[in-house]
Structures are given as C-alpha cells and as structure tokens.
Amino acid sequence: MPILSLEGLVKRYGALLVTDHVSLMLDKGEALGILGPNGAGKTTLFNLIAGTVAASEGRVIFNDRDISAFPARARCHLGISRSFQVPHPFLGMTTFENVLVGAAFGRGLSERQASASALEVLELTGLMRKANALAGTLTLLERKRLELARALATQPTLLLLDEIAGGLTEAECHELIATIKAVRAQGVSIIWIEHVVNALLAVVDRIAVLDFGRKIAEGEPAAIMASPEVTSIYMGLDA
Amino acid sequence: MKPGYTIERATHASRIAGALSLVAIVALIAAPWWAGRANMRLLGEVYAFLALASLWNLLAGFTGLVSVGQQAFVGLGGYALFAAAIFYGVPPLLAVVLSGFVGALIALPLAPILFRLQGAYFAIGTWVAAEVFRLTFAQVSALGGGSGTSLPARIVTDIASTRDAREMIVYWSALALGLGTIAAIYAILRSRAGLALTAIRDSEIASESLGVNIARSKLVLYVVTAALTTMTGALIFLQKLRISPDAAFSVNDWTAYVIFMVVIGGIGTIEGPIVGTLIFFLLRETLSDLGTIYLMLLGAVAILVMLKAPKGLWGLFSSATGITLFPLRRRVVQFDAK
After folding, report:
1. pTM of the complete model
2. CB nearest to A111's CB, from B192, B207, B213
3. Which CATH architecture has domain A30-54+70-235?
4. Which member of A88, A105, A153 has the closest CB to residue B212?
5. pLDDT (tens digit per residue) in B128-179
6. pLDDT tens-digit map of B177-193
7. Phi and psi of B17, rounded to 5°?
8. Cα–Cα distance, B52 to B266 (Å, whole number)
9. Among the CATH numbers 3.30.300, 3.30.70, 1.10.3470, 2.40.50, which is that of B8-333?
C-alpha cells in the first residue's frame, strides 16, 4: 500500500524546468534512494514533497490524500518530515531547544511532553552530550545530525533525508546507518538523497535516478548501479 | 520527563541579577521620596521608552516585522485617552488600560493588510498607515483638529486633587507599565509560544517545516505589541497632558529613537532594548545641549555600533561573557545516577 505517490510533478522557475513530470510511488515502510548528479533536481523534489515550494503541475498524494495545496506546516502535521541539505539550525537556540521545536510544534505536544520526547531523540541520534551547546557552535557534521534529530522529533511516518552522510568518516557513517535502520524498524518510510552510495545501498530497497529534472531510471539497487544511466552519470562514460 | 534528566532555566548570573533588580525596583518605587520633580518626569519618560523599545524589539527582533509605524499606536493611545476622558468622562487611568483594547481592535484588521507586504515594503506600509492615522485625527475638530488640545483641568484633577499626588500616581503607573511590559515579554518568550518566536527569528524555512504556524504567530504578536504600544502611548500623553497630531504620530519620537535604542542595545534579546534605552537617555541628558551636534553624535554612535557590534552592545557583552540576565535558554541537566 503506497504512503506517497507523486503524479507528474513539474516545477518551473520561469523557462527553467527543474522538475520534469516526475512520477514516483513509495510503499509504507519502504526505503527509496535517490541518485543523480548535482543540479538534477533532487532537493527540489524534496521541496515539492515537503511543501517548502509549490509544484507548477502534478499532484502529491500522501496516504490517499491529495496534499498538493497544503503548506509545509500542514504536511509536517500529517507526518512528512525532512532534513535540509544545507542545514538550517536555529543558531541562537541550544541543540535541545532545536529538537524541542520539532517535538512541540510538529506533534502539538505541551512543552513537558515535548521535552521528554526531545531527550529521547537526542539520545537516539547521539547528540545528548551537545544538548546544551548553541546550535551556532556545532560543527557541520553535528549540524547534519541535528537536521536528522529535528526531523525525527516531529515523529514522521515519511522521512526525507537530504545528503546527511556526506563528509562523515567511515565509523560515523556506520553509526548513521545504524540510526537510520533503527528509525526504519519503527515503520517509518524513508526517501534518501545521497551521494555516498555505500550508505544508501546499506539501507534502501529501491533506487530512482534523476537527471535534468527527469526520472531516468528506477528499480532494484543492484540493477540500477549496473545500469548504463548510472555508470554514465557517475563514471562520465557514454551509455 | 525522561528519567535521570531535568530542564533548568535560571543561571548564576540571572539569580544575582534577579536579586539586584528587586532592590532597584524597590528604589524606583520609592522615587517620589528621593527624586525631585524633574527627575521623576525623566524617569517616567525612561519607563515609557523602555516599553516602546522592548515592544519594537519583540516585533522586529523575533519575527522580522520591521515596523517604522509604531507611532500609529502611540498616537492612537494618546487620542483614545483624550477622547475617552473628554467625551465619556472615563477616569484617565482606566482609559489607559482600555486603550489597549482599542489598539488591539485596530491592529486586528490592519495586520492582514500590512502582512501582504514583505520586508522593506512592510516597513513603508506601516509608516503610511501611521500617516493615515495622523491625518484622520487632524480632522477631528472636537479634539482640536490639526493643532491639538489639552486635557481639561477637571479631568486632570480627577486623578488626584494635589499636583504631588497626581505626579506620584502617574509616575507609578509608568513604572508599572514599563516593568509590566518587560515582564510580559519575558513570560511570552519563556513560554511555548516564545519557543516558536525564537525559532522563527532564527530560520523561517526550518520553523515552517517543523510545524510552526508562522502566520498566526506573527499576527498574534503584532496585535499584542499594538495593544501594549497603545497603552504606552496613552500613558505618555497622560504625562504630557497635551496632544496634537504631529506630536502623537511623530515617526522621530516614537519610532526612530526607539529603533536607535534597540539597535545600539542589541536586537533580538530582552536585555538589548533596556541597555539601549539607558544609553540613549544617558547621551541625551549629557549631550543634548549641543543641539545639532548631539544629533550627529547619535548618528555616529549608531553607525559605529552597527559596524563594530552588529548584535549591539549587549550582544557584544553577552557573547564575550556568556552572561544573560533574562534566562530564556533551557538547559538539560543530568542527575548523578548514584
């Protein structure tokens, strides 16, 4: 049963076609990876799903409901949460407070309940020892982790992860994979944009490839990685 | 709460500051017995500007609503007071309180119109709205039209029969309003709503995607700010006892100086506007005899602070020492698991 289906999504900025009739389906509990070169429209696709920007054409169906016209806030309340590729931490707040915002407003909890839930998320994402640090003092890696933590604090059923593994050491990457697997084990559906292919392959069931705003391939990870579309993009070879 | 953890707010510095400010507040309450008439007047003015600067900062520093039209509500408050007292015989102090509701009622329909404008256009829009208010009140001949009017003597003596008693009452009202405004802002910012406002201050895009209702937060904040600004305006003109459209809706007096205070003190903090207000009055009381040069000095100070300390003097001090007087931050404290 699908949790999300995208039907012919189009995003234009003037004459520029950033998302070109993309259709995608994601089953409940499934994890989908998205690959594609820089500028392929991957982050824009997330913006369209999360409601950060509105689609020019097409529909976003979430749990059998057309949410195309919903603002980001409403989509968050329905269970869609995302991390930003370029972290947008609340710089003047502590790590704990950053996560607290997600728990309090994403789930409509009282501050007391939200605090308890934020602490659990901090533990899960390994940020507890940075709980009282101002987000402005966090390193890039910690900020990426914070993106994940805030997104999780809203208790999503669909989690959109935008390049959170880039720049991690091998050990950190393993930790991250374990965290994401733990989240998935709770039944959360995941779409993950990632250039670190090994991390992606450790988690996802399926991969879609975007190029110039179009979906050019979709299928089993092994088949996709061997496909000429992907080798041409990643190896610079002609298909 | 998660076992083994608790959330704390107060810091060492804030506890000391709390104790010291209690002493200061008692001293200020007792001002009629140690300060002369002129100084009480000055303090009354300081309290009004403490409120105005704190309110402007709440709006601009937290939700990015940079208004250069808050004089609309200051003037509205003044005129609401005069109209209520002259036409309906409402006791002046009650009229000050009621003017808050007038401000909120006017702000409610005004906000959706102004919110259609973004950034600089919003700023200009608020100014235009204030000018519309000024021109409107200049048409009310019963309130003196363009040249304004004074509060009739019978209404003034209504507050208290002797001049000393009257000045004490007005002084305490101003003190209550100034401190009350800061206390209200502190309470708002510490609450769950304050968490949303601080999040909006730091990143609108992230707030929105984490479920924060930005539009509603801005509307509520605009209306609350308008109500308190209107009450402050009413109190300012209760001190002055005379009102005219130009004085009531002066962009210089009620917004430009206020922005100066917030910017040099430090925008986006509670302490900033307080520090800024004190510095402004310190400069004014020592240098205003210099005339034009005083204004040039003010400008130079503003430019210098903006270039060298964009977070204001309080921001500079606070980031160097880590001291906050109004602790908003929530600190996670782990119990010793023994």
Report:
1. 0.88
2. B192
3. 3-Layer(aba) Sandwich (3.40)
4. A105
5. 999 999 999 999 998 988 888 998 888 888 888 888 899 999 999 999 999 9
6. 999 999 999 999 999 99
7. -60, -40
8. 15
9. 1.10.3470
